[in-house]
Each structure stands twice: as C-alpha cells, then as structure tokens.
C-alpha cells in the first residue's frame, strides 16, 4: 500500500535526501524543509521504496502538498 508523504507546514524545500527507487525506513530523511530559518527533516511513517518525488529543491510547499510516495 502506498504512503503519501505530505507537507505539514508551509516551507521551502531545502534538500532532497533520497532519489526515486531508494529503499527507506521510518528513520530515513526524505527531504529537508526550511521554515523560519529552521530545518525540518521529513520522514516516512513506514518502510518501503520511493516511487515518486513530487518536489524539487527551492520549491515552496503548502500544507497538504505532496512531497513523495513510498510503496
């Protein structure tokens, strides 16, 4: 079952730490968001493979925007 990783806050995408096809666990940083000069790592809830990355460095995400999909 696919897990959609979505933004919880309005932020800038500072870094993408994985690429499509990478295996991840609940401890793997997928992207790093930056908001109000704080860096916020975004982690998946479970383990799986990254099948889609929906953002690029420098993008601005809104609350609820899709960041990545883990299957």
From TrEMBL:
The keyword Methyltransferase belongs to this UniProt entry's keyword annotation: no
Swiss-Prot/TrEMBL keywords: Biotin
Domain Lipoyl-binding: 1-71
Keyword Glycoprotein in annotation: no
InterPro entries: Biotin_Carboxyl_Carrier/Decarb, Biotin_lipoyl, Single_hybrid_motif
Name recorded for this polypeptide: Biotin-dependent enzyme
Protein's organism: Saccharothrix carnea
């Amino acid at each position: 079952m696919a897990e959609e990783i979505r933004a919880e806050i309005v932020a800038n995408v500072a870094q993408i730490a994985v690429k499509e096809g990478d295996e991840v666990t609940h401890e793997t940083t997928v992207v790093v968001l930056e908001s109000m000069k704080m860096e916020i790592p975004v982690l998946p809830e479970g383990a799986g493979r990254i099948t889609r990355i929906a953002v690029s460095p420098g993008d601005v995400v809104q609350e609820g925007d899709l960041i990545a999909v883990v299957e």
